[in-house]
Amino acid sequence: MEPTATQVATVTHLKCIDLSYLRRITKSNPGVMTKMMVLYLRQVPPLILSLRKGFNEQDWKTVFHASHQLIPSFAIMGIGIEFEAMSKRIQQSAGAGHSIPEMHGMISQLEEICTIACQEIESELRVEQTV
Known about the structure:
By secondary structure, the chain is mainly α.
C-alpha cells in the first residue's frame, strides 16, 4: 500500500507545493503569482468536492470532468507528479464509464494533498502580504 499524502509530507518534512514552476511562468511577478494562487484556492476545493460527489453517485461524466480540470493544477503548484498521474488514471477510468478498485483511495489521496496544498498556499499568501 502506498503512503498517503500526509505520511509523505510528514516523513520528509517537505512542503507539498513547489512554486518554482509558477515563478518561472509568471517571471516572478508577485501580482500574477498571487492571482494564480488565489485562483487555485477558489477552483480546486469545489473540483475535489465534485470529484467525490461524482464518485459517490457513480456519475462518471462528473468524475471525468473534475479530474480533467485538476490535472494542470498539480504542475502549476509543483505538487508531485504522482498525484497528476492519479488524476489521469481516474479520468481515464471515468471516461470509460466505470470505477477501478483503487479509485476511492486515489480520490481520498487527492483530497488530502489538495487540502495540504491549499493550506500551504494560504500560508504563502500570508507571507507575501507581510513583505
